[in-house]
Amino acid sequence: MANLRAGLLGLGMMGRHHARVLRQLEGVDLVAVADPGGDPHGAAGGLEVLPDIHALIEAGVDYVMVAAPTQFHTEVGLALAEAGVHALIEKPLAKDVEGARALAEAFERHGLVGAVGHIERYNPALQSLRVRLEEGELGEVYQIATRRQGPFPARIADVGVVKDLGTHDIDLTAWVAQQHYTSVAARTAFKSGREHEDLVAITGMLSGGTVTNHLVNWLSPMKERVTVVTGEKGTFVADTLLADLTFYANGLIQTQWDDVAQFRGVSEGDVVRFAINKPEPLKTEHEAFRDAVLGRESDIVTMRQGYATVAVAEAAIESARTGSAVDITA
């Protein structure tokens, strides 16, 4: 079987990493790249830098990795759908819920594989966590809390922290729990002089009764990416910067001190840090999309799921604007 012909739109900070992985991907040839801004990082690797998505389509590609700014996702994605080209689009799927819905419907209508680059799903720590939750190692899941903070990335100009960083946590939380959001309440702040929010605190409820909490900002000098899942049997902590997964078990030793024993809660038990394989998440993401295009069984983030994530993000922004919780219909 001939290799798949892949194209890449966008040669910026993320595009250069996609170019590297596509060149390493078995069964795939990176045959064309495009960016109206040129190739600032030298990612083209000898390929002609085409001017736009239409030139990329004309190059005869089977699928395209879209690493363009969020504001162009809908226009670019719809052009690919009309041309019959499969697409993996960087997150968030679109700048607004209308664009995200249009993309999901277009790719479904044309029978194409459309996916969203929510790369955290492919982090080894979260992959292992998802399996362990499915196998009942935590019992009932009570709460999922995430922290995602760090300095402002100069590459982001068209969306705020909710749609850029917060969508990571919205997607991974629904995926890990295998539940959808039913409501959110949020507060935002604007501290860096930009038109978009740079800090958000979101509280949510999932369809299975799990409570969620997301703290996200571009205002911290330290970088943190942590997911904490608390349940019936203890707590999992996934550090996705290091791809580490740790389990804090509820204690099994009965407290003998009467005054303390009257408090009905849990006690500290064993702590286990799991040894897990740590493949590069971006490579795993691309392998999953390649397999989906080839018709193999694969776990991709569908555009329909990407649309749901954008809808939750917009509900959080609306909640912050109005000061009221917002219900989300599935």
From TrEMBL:
GO terms for molecular function: nucleotide binding. Residues 5-118 form the Gfo/Idh/MocA-like oxidoreductase N-terminal domain. Keywords: NAD. It comes from the Bacteria. The keyword Amino-acid biosynthesis does not apply. Residues 127-236 form the GFO/IDH/MocA-like oxidoreductase domain. The keyword Nucleotidyltransferase does not apply. This is Gfo/Idh/MocA family oxidoreductase.
